[in-house]
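Q: Could you fold this chain for me?
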Amino acid sequence: MKDLKHLIYFEKLLEEAHNELVREAKSQGRKCLATVCENTPEPLCNLEGAFSVRLRAPRTGSLDVSTYYMTSFLCEYTRALLERAMEGGFNFADGLVTPDGCTMINRCIENMELNKAINNPDFFYEYMEIPMKADDNGLALYKLQCQNHILNPMKEKWGIDISDAAIRKSVEQHNKICKVIRELGDFRKEEYPRITGYEFHIICMVSYACPQDLILDKLIETLEEVKTREPDDTKHRARVVLVGSEIDDIDMVKLVEDSGAYVCADRFCYGSLPGRDPIVLNDEEDALTQVCRIYMERGQCPRYMNQQKMIDRRQYVADLVKEYNADGVIYEQMKFCDPWAYERMVGSHVIRDDFGYPVLTVDRPYAIGSSGQMRTRIQAFVESIEIKQIQGGAK
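A: Sure. Below is the predicted structure, expressed as structure tokens.
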């Protein structure tokens, strides 16, 4: 296929957290509210005068300093963030909101705060408690936490308008991004897709790592380009849904596709499903309550432990396999990620035994590089799918 016009530009934006568009937004006098988890509602962080950036540590090398503070038994994502903060890589941020999605991310941010890792005199940290059950009590907690740890600090420290009208305006802007991303993602359903999983992953990530209003025009232009793009006429050996924990390493999806499996759907932190579902508001209820309810009800994070949410998580994956015409599922978990370790174990058995889909489960480092072992495992999985199809077995 013809190369996408802006792909190299998007890749360049992802080479560092303090990218060109972040610098542009800062030069406009806007405040950067950094986040580290999908459980932080983006529209609340993107109110006029502010913008959000999901922190990541591209081109991670040594983790010696962060390992000293956090030990080698915590996930590399959290250690990479601390290492990058200690290097001064996040000094552009003006505040950081951290939900207690897991104890590891809390420990990471606490170490940043104790070591004064972010050198910004007006910088502030906020820690959110998020519900473990998606019910009325959970919603009340979620709403209170978002009010106290996102909205109130933005108003008190930066003078940001946090009114209902301001939130609705932010949701409207958020939905513009979601609409473009989801339209691009729908092309992955085609028998001969006109966008690769790698390209889509890049495009989706820049929508998290850059001010949304500054990247929107190029995303729209890319959508129009893809609409008329001629796909390759070579059918992929296998189509897979990639499910699991945080993936911001562009090499991970590339490695999967280089190994023969087309990533047709992305159910992972930093993915579009359900992270780029539009937020539909009504006029009868306040916007904050609605945003919190939507995030809570659609969330696929293993943080939610009520029985119905656990059942729904596996059903959601099975539905994606069907909707995107996948041949199998890859459950991935960053090494030492406790929430996804349990979800990966149980979820993979349910998808295989109850729904009948081939499943590969892997744990991985934060930065995959060119892992020969991972490549071999994925290649073997692709071959096993092909053998089943030749034998007439179920997908």
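A (continued): The chain has a mean pLDDT of 95.
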